[in-house]
Amino acid sequence: MSDTVFADACALAAAIRRGDVSAREAVDRVLDRIARLDGDLCAYALVDADGARAAADRADAKRAAGADLGALHGVPFSVKDLIDTEGLETAFGSHLMAGNIPARDAATVARLKSTGAILIGKTTTPEFAHKALTTSPRYGVTRNPWNLNRSPGGSTGGGAVAAAAGLAPLALATDGAGSARIPASCCGVLGLKATLGRIPNEAAADLFGNFIYHGAITRTTADLAAMVNAISGPDAGDPWTTACAPVPLTVPDDPVKALAGTRLTYLPLMGNRKLDPRVDTAVRQTLHQLATAGADIGEWRESDPDDWGNELARVIIRAPLHVRMARFGPEQHARMDPSLRQAIEESAALDPRDLQAAPLGRAALFRRVEAMFAETDLLITPTVSAPPLSAEHEAWEPLRIGGKVVGPLRANWYNYPAPFNLTGHPAVSIPCGWDDTGLPIGLQAVARWHDDQRLIDLAAAVETLQPWTDRWPDLVLQDL
Fold it and tell me: For a surface tag, which of 49, 153, 369, 426 has the fewest beta carbons within 10 Å of its beta carbon?
């Protein structure tokens, strides 16, 4: 089998079902590639080679016995080191959680396993997923496969790197302020945060005010639809899911034809100070392609400055951190990432009046987005305002565009995804080009609640009009 098929979960599952390749062969191929490439990439926090091979052997025995096979039978997948995996350490990217062995799988992990998919290992995350860059005291620096000197973004940086470099075609992510979409954009893959309640997150600290989602990162649209279908549906541990009966996602037979008449509205800035021209050009060129295919393209005329709840998101995201980290004493704090300690201090210093106003602000932001959907079907933004940053960029360092400082990363680089974590609307990052140095660029699409299918339709149309799946990082090509 070609390496392209090994990176395509749906094709791989079909090949295993036919007997063209065994699950053990598929797993061994991924493990071999991890052994060769991950020393440079640092995508994995932990690789469970023995467990994966044993699961693959069981999968092959099941096929040989003529048993019914799940949709992703034999397909390797990775899980962010923030999500519980039975019998396999979940360390949250932290020295402080060493030896934390969950007694059971998270619902999303269990559902992937129930389809026959095989867990390869846990992917790297910043400590307690507190920032949009994937570095941690425990695992070091995770690097972008398109350029090892660049960051993959975060916080599901390891998962996006694994998908982009062929180190497992499916990556289970979390997304609290863009943590699936940001690294997907930086690594040239797809990253989706579904409608609130479609996919369970029963481990959320605040179940009823939850803004943290389990999400999916893949290379192809078909894989994205298949993975989201596998992990969707009600779970008693997550109250948002209990009344949700999601319709399975499908890839249109003719994605370009299906796009005709769809109304897309482009929001270039969403309150930030400056957009890198390379990103703006890539998004606009993609929109032009979509317009040629029959989509109706408009642009939002933003006020100056336009408030998209950046400070609101900061307050809501930071609010629980001080309480959650209170179990760690001064000696343990000293072992934390300095930017995590800074975030904890920021949490402790929040103004109580801002905390009191936050639920009202979240409701107002939801109403604002809903009002926009009276005139459009999809909102389109850049996923991040500039191509991937330096791998050593610190969370507190400001963003520079064109050599000029434009301000903090939260307000000026990844300000686009976070509002939709608060409003609950589904959102996806779709590859839309590369900059002049070969770094990926992504656009974000946002749909109405429970209109996740429209995001799949758009991703499939973009993949058809300007395919990204036939392009691989040099690091991977040199390994073939």
Answer: 49
